[in-house]
Amino acid sequence: MAEPILGLSGVSKRFGALVVSDDVSLTVAPGELHALIGPNGAGKTTLIHQIAGSLASDAGRIGFCGRDITALPMHERARLGLARSFQITSVVPGFSALENVALAVQARSGSSFRFFGNAAREAALNAQALEALETVALAARADVPAGLLSHGEKRALELAIALAMRPKLLLLDEPMAGTGREESLKLVALLASLKGRYAILLVEHDMHAVFSLADRISVLIYGRIVASGAPDAVRADPTVRAAYLGEEAA
Amino acid sequence: MSADIAQAVRTPLRRPLDPRALAVPLVVFAALALLPAAAAFGATSYVLSLGARVMIFAIAAISLDLILGYGAMVSFGHAAYLGIGAYAAGILMAEGVDDALLGAGAAIAASGLFALVTGYVSIRTKGVAFIMITLAFGQMAYFVANSLSEYGGSDGLTMASRSTLLGLKLLKNDLTFYYVVLACLAGSYLLCRAVVAARFGRALRAIRENPVRMAAVGYDVERIRLVAYVIAGMIAGLSGFLLANQTEFVSPAYMAWQRSGELIVMVILGGMGSLVGAILGAVAFLMLEETLSHLMEHWKVVFGPLLVLVVLFVRGGLTGLLAGGKRHG
Amino acid sequence: MSTTLFIVQILNGLQLGILLFLVAAGLTLVFGVMDFINLAHGVQYMLGAYLAVAFFGLTGSFAAAVLLALPTALLLGLLLEVLVFRHLYDRDHLDQVLATFGVILFINEAVKIIWGAAPLNVPIPDVLSGSLRLMDGLFYPVYRLAIIAAGLGVAGLLAWLVNGTRVGMLVRAGATNAPMVSALGVDIRRLFMVVFGFGAMLAGFAGVMAAPILSVEPGMGDTLLILAFVVIVIGGIGSIRGAFLAALLVGLVDTLGRSFATDVMKLLVSPSAATNVGPALASMLIYILMAGVLFFRPAGLFPAGGKA
User: Fold this and answer.
1) Cα–Cα 20 to 30 A to A56, which of B282, C55, C238, C277?
2) Distance from CA of A118 to the nearest CA of B (A)
3) What pLDDT score was predicted for residue A186?
C-alpha cells in the first residue's frame, strides 16, 4: 500500500474526566475516500478538530504527507494541503461567493502581506476561484454575498473553498448536514465526482451516502475505533451491528 | 459583529467604484484645503490652529479605524501611540535634533516598536481581554512618561520650537504647518484605503468576520492582526509627532486613558470601517468639545450622557446617519 | 534598606492588593456572569470614598459614615444598572465600553461639580489611629492593619458565598456557561442584579476604607480600575480565586517595585542612571508581569471556564 496521506496513531483527547478521543489510529491513502461514522457524541467532530489543528491532542501523533503535524497550528496544516469543511457552515458572510473562494486561492498562492493593488480585481485569483465555483455548480451565484446563499449553496461553497486550496486531503465534517433531499443528492454526486482525485476523510450521518461512496469505513464509538474496513465487512461486523447500525435500524 | 456583516452585505465588493463613495472624501478634503482661505475673513490663527488640531486627531482616528473598523480589534490604548510619537519629537528636540524628517521617523519607529511588542502579547488573547490589556499597556506608557524626570515628568516638556524641514523653519508658519498636516492626513487616508483594498486588507476584513474560517484556509490570523496593529500604531505615532509640533509641548496627558476613549468615540461617531468616517468623527467630536467647553466649564456632564444615548439609540455613526440608514439592531 | 522597611512595604503591598481585590472581585464576577465589561466599576469605588467624606461631614462619625455610605453606594449602583447597564447586556463589547465610558465622564464631572476638584480627606477614626508595634523598631499604622483584616474578612465571606451557597453555585456556573444556567430556568437578570449590586458594594466598601488614607479626588477610581483589569487578566477572567491571588501579587509587585527598584538598579548601573531608570521601571513592573503571564498563559493563571 502506498504511503498514506494522513496517518493517526494513538491520538487521544480528554476534557477533564471525559475521554473524547481514545487512542485513535487510522490512515487515509492517496485517492481513498475513508468514511468515519459513529453515533452522536462518539467524538467524530473532536477528531476532525484534532486533525485540522483547532484542538490540541493530549497524546499520539498525526502524520500528514510524511510530516509530523501534531504540533502545527491550524493555518500551517492548511497550507500543507489539509482542507476542511465545517459541521456548522462557516463562510465569510459579507463577502461574495467568489471572494470567499478567492481568499482561499490568495492564501495558497503568494503572500497576503501585499499592501497595494486591489485584491478584488486580481484576475489570476478570480479565475481560479471561478473555476472552483464551476466545479460545485455555483458559478452563477459568484457575486452573491455568501451570507445570502441558501443552506445547500453554502455547503457547496465550503467545498469550493476547500477545492481552491488545491488540497492533498479533504476533511469533510457532515457536508450533507441540514440539506434537503434534492441538495443532498447533488452533493453526493459531487463527492462521487471528487472521489479518486483527492484523499478524503468524510464524517457523515447519511448511511446511504457513506456506504455508496466510501472505500473504507471506520466506526467510532465513545472515542474508540471499534471497527475499520471495507463497507461490506463493516456492515457485517457484529460489534458494529449491535452497537451502532442496530440502533439506526430500530 | 453582525452589524458589520449586515453593512458588508449591503455593499458588494466587486462593483466598479461608486461615484458617491468618492464624493464624500473629495468634499471633505476640498473643504479642509479651502478652510484657510475662508479663515482669511475671520480669526485666522484660531481657525488654522483648530483645523490643524482636528486633522491631527483625524490621523490618529483613521489609524484606529484600521484596526477597530476593519480588524475588530477594540484597542483602548491607542492614545499611547499619540504620546510616544509626541515624546519622540520632544526628546529628540531636547537632545538637539530638530529635523522634522528625523523626528517623524523616530516617532513612527518608536510607535511601531511599542505596537509590535505590546501587540504580540495582546493579540494572543480574545475579546474583552484585548480591551483590558490594551488599556493596561496604554496606562503603562502614561506612567512611564510621568516618571521621565529628565524630560519634565508629570509637568511635561516644552519644546524650544517646531521641527525644521531641511534646515529651514518652515513649520513655524501656521499656514505651512496646516498644509503639512493636511498632506499627512491625505497620505494616511490614501495609505489606509490602499491597504484595506489590497490582499492584506481583504484578509484582515475577512478575519474580522470569521477568523476560524480564515485560519482553516491557511491564514496566520494573529500575524495579520499584528501587522495591522503595528501599521495603525505607526500612523498614530506620526500624528503624535504633529501634535507635539503644533503645541510645542509634550505631556503625559496626551496618553491619558480618557484620550484613548475619545479616539474610539471619534471612530464610532463617524461610523467605523469607512476611514473617511474617522475624519468626520474627529471633526464632530472636537467641534462638539470646543462648543460645549465654551458654553460651560463642566461640559463632560452633558457629553457623557449624550454618549450613552448615542450608543443606546443612534447606531451606525454619522456616516450611517448620512446614508439615511440605521445600523441593524 | 532594612528588614523593617521591607516588612512595612510588604504590608503596604498587601493593603493595596486587598483594595484591588475588592474592586476586581465585582468586576470579574459581573464579566463572568454577564459577559459585560463595565469601565464604570471604578466609579463605584470613587463614590464610596466620596460618600464616606459626605456622611462623615454630616455625622462626624466614621462608623456612621461607613454604615450610611455602603447602602447608598449599593443604591447608586443599582440605579446605574437599571438606567444604563441593563440595556447593554446583549450589546457587543464595543458598545458596552463606549456607554460605560460615557457614564464615567458624567460621574467624574458630577463629582467635581458637587465636591470640587480639590482632593478631600476623612480623618482616621480615633479607635483605629496610632501605630501598632509589630516587632522591635517596627511600627505599623493600626488603620492599615484594619484594612487588611477587613479585606481578608470580606474575601473569606466572598469565598463562602461563592462556594457554599446556592446563589454562589449559580454564579460559578454562570461564569462557566451562562446560557446553560438560563436554560435551567434561573432568572439570569435577577441573578445579575444581585451579583452587580454586590460587586458595586464591594467596590464602594474599598472606596470607603481608602478614604482616610488616600486623597479623595475625581478620577481616583479610574486608575484603580485599570489596575483591577491587570489583576483580572493575570488571574483569569471570571475567577474569584484568580482575582484574589493576582490582586495580592500586583499589590506587592507594584509597592515593592516603587520602593526598591531604584536601589536594585543602583546595583546594576551608575547611581544617576538608576535614579532615572528606576522609577520608570517601577511603574512598568506590573504591566511586564501581566505581559509575562499572558505570554505563557493567554487565558490567565486561573481561567474560570476550565478549558485553556
Assistant:
1) C238
2) 5
3) 87
